[in-house]
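Q: Here's a chain of 443 amino acids. Please give me its 3D structure as tokens.
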Amino acid sequence: MRMKSMSSRAVGFAILSCALTSPLACGSSTSDADDDAGESGDGGKGGSSITSAGRGGSSAASGSPGASGGKRATGGTGATGDTGATGGTAAAGGTGATGGTAAAGGTGATGGTGATGGTGATGGTAGVSATGGKSATGGAGGSAAVSLGKACSIDADCGGSLVCVSSDALSGGVGPAHGLCSAPCDTTADCSSFGTDSYCYSLTASDSYCLQGCTTGALGTPKCQERADVACSLIGLIPQGAACQTSDDCNEGELCDASTSQCGLIVTGCVPICGGDFDCSSGQHCDFTTGLCSDAAPGGLPLGSLCTPPSGSAADPCDGFCLAGSDATEGSCSALCTLTPELTGCGWDGTGAAAEACLFATVLSGNDVAPGDVGICGKLCDCTAQCVLSGDYCVDESGGQVRSVWGRAGYCRPLQQGETQSDTFVTCPGGGSAGAGGEGGGL
């Protein structure tokens, strides 16, 4: 379900400032973050990078959320076929315009003919399917449209033509955490009764269902039924025909599709993303690679593990994805997550000390991060020895809020200009110390 994307790492900004101080009021900042998200290598699903991984850089007390640069990461999913426009992007086919009214965190859009989807599915992962544009109604009425994307246990929880897609309803015994009110589809035209910002999306290689569209940032709030297990994430790109090597070559609201080397308008939708096994039914596991609950335990290295970023067609070694550090030859296992007021996810259910947390924004949100947006998991720590990447230190510029929320001293990132080791947590609990990139000690 995830698009494997390549992105060169650059220093960025953490979600921390917004998430820790006032997660319900996260909004635009005035940060000068560099929005580069360069792509290279195997573009996978969609081929573009949404990882603008903010590994430090801003003061957590400064109110400057957002992110820049980026590291290698799995970012959202790519399109398979034609997609209509969504949330602030131009309409598909070049004939539409941004819709005038918002619906469930997105914007309605006039559409003519649908744009040809330039990104194809690989490895049985998911995408968006559409045929033609959608009429500019600015939303949709009826109980089914209102219930699209809600959590459910049985079909009766959804109403209308919607069914409850349970956590084990899809092929292979997988499914969305806490159920998803939706309807099966073959193309986005099948979802038109649920509104102009609804899309047909492949949850697995053989299971496609209607999803809500959404808009990242404060403009789109509330979004995605305000669910902690669903995130406003990349679901496709509408090709614009302009050649590119990185997203710097594209216009605002576009990403470079590495699989086609063309700029594409960003299409975002409400994608299921489980936060941990606690989100799934008894006996199930959260698969951080797909974001779905699974009857089978996922393979791969756990979050926070040291990993080698794969190249070419090599398999990713992580349950999630291997996110490259300052040294492109090493990385740490990470995953996509949902920024929520509860600050849960990345394997943490809100109790005890956390090993990972939803810390970093993506290029989709940039400097305007809001609840419901997709984020990237980051490693928490009590001392630098627990940071697995070379050049990373255990820091906390939030004035102790990391410990207050997650029960840890800080999080792992490189030092920023003007910072020294005296600004880091050198001494590990129980004594001892280590330099940057010391052996990970876990909790």
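Q: Can you summarize the key feature?
A: Residues 1-47, 52-126, 129-141, 434-443 have pLDDT under 50 and may be disordered.
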